[in-house]
Amino acid sequence: MKIPDRLVHTAFYRFARLEQPGEVAAQLRQLLAQRFAQVTGSILVAPEGINGMLAGPPQAVDGIEQALSTDLAFAGAFAGMAFRRSDCTTPPFGRMKVHVKKEIVPLGIDGVDACRTGTNVSPQAWRELIRDPDVVLLDNRNSFEYRLGHFRGAVDPLVANFRDFPAYVQAHVDDWQAQGKRVAMYCTGGIRCEKTSAWMQDMGVPVFQLEGGILNYFAQMPDAQADWQGECFVFDNRVALDTRLRE
User: Fold this and answer.
1) Torsion angles phi and psi, residue 95, rounded to 5
2) Which of 238, 234, 236, 237 is nearest to 214 (CA)?
3) Are 140 and 230 in contact (CB under 8 A)?
4) CA–CA dist 56, 175 (Å, integer)
5) Mean pLDDT in residue range 207-219
């Protein structure tokens, strides 16, 4: 397949209760095959919602975003879903995959209702929040991602897998509460923080999460390098982006 002159990457997720995730996945496969054959990437569908990363020519990406938001086949489950875009030089994906999973992001704890999440903080307000000495700034990613780049002053929980993150929280939550600390968390696009904060709220911990994650911070803050050190790992062939969303 000829590579288009310009490629756009879009990342999205939505925690929503899907009664028939298999049917949603089938509708997605049909839609992509019939109308958006130039689009490649990966979409996960589960009873708790949808999580996807796609790339293609701008017009095709416009079309699939519109379809996800408005197509009657999805019964409004994804209406208003945010899409985080960046331009591509390297084709991010080799093909298109749609999978049905138990969870769109596996925390390793059963029964977490991620439709009930913590407090989203805009990129502009995040800058002030993370400079508060009474805030614990947690990097909710794997340790190798932290080493590639992170917010200045952030704590690396030293985990190799997202499923290991709850153990770190459980080991430190009593100290945070005793010290009257608030917790601010961030991840690449926001999905891991939403799942974790839904669980942490039940522990009585005030949780604040960066709206749209690191990629949204880079998109909204022209001087993001003032708060960010290094690059941001992304889960595709581009490997990493700088604070201006460049490979």
Assistant:
1) -155, 180
2) 234
3) no
4) 47
5) 95
